[in-house]
Design goal:
Layout: H1 10-20, H2 25-32, H3 38-43, H4 55-65, H5 72-87, H6 123-132
Region (Disordered): 88-110
Protein name: Helix-turn-helix domain-containing protein
């Protein structure tokens, strides 16, 4: 399987596997259902248009196109993580196995108080949430 997109080895591993499979960049793009210019952008870190694929879709597609099987637990974890970012709920619990959004603290919320979206949260709200979970925030927590 290809290294995770943020791994510094990803570009070289993608190129090596593509060449091992005997695929051109255009063939890989078609097989992964991505635009034909993207394999070059993923393979060449020195390229001015260098970028990394999205883990929830493109990275998985590239792996499949290159003949790798994706373990179910990895697909589930990526889907849950991306869903959490997409929904953006601050302080919400983990997703259940059926990918349904649940808030295990819903009973503890005062009635009539709406869920706080991360995009609407102040720094004080975030620090308060961290303290409520016995986490002492440091600078690295807030980046």
């Amino acid at each position: 399987m290809l290294p995770y997109p943020r791994d510094p080895e990803f570009p070289a591993a993608l190129k090596a596997r593509r060449e091992l499979c005997g695929l051109s960049r255009a063939q890989l793009a078609r097989a992964a259902n991505i635009h034909e210019v993207m394999p070059r952008r993923y393979e060449e870190p020195e390229c001015g248009e260098f970028t990394r694929p999205r883990p929830d879709s493109t990275w998985l597609s590239l792996n499949r196109a290159l003949g790798f099987e994706i373990p179910t637990d990895i697909e589930t974890l990526i889907a849950q993580t991306e869903s959490m970012y997409t929904k953006g709920l601050l302080g919400s619990g983990p997703l259940d196995p059926n990918n349904q959004w649940e808030d295990p603290q819903a009973d503890a919320q005062p009635e009539g108080e709406a869920e706080l979206l991360l995009k609407d949260a102040s720094l004080e709200d975030i620090v308060k949430l961290l303290h409520s979970r016995n986490i002492e925030p440091t600078f690295r927590h807030l980046i």
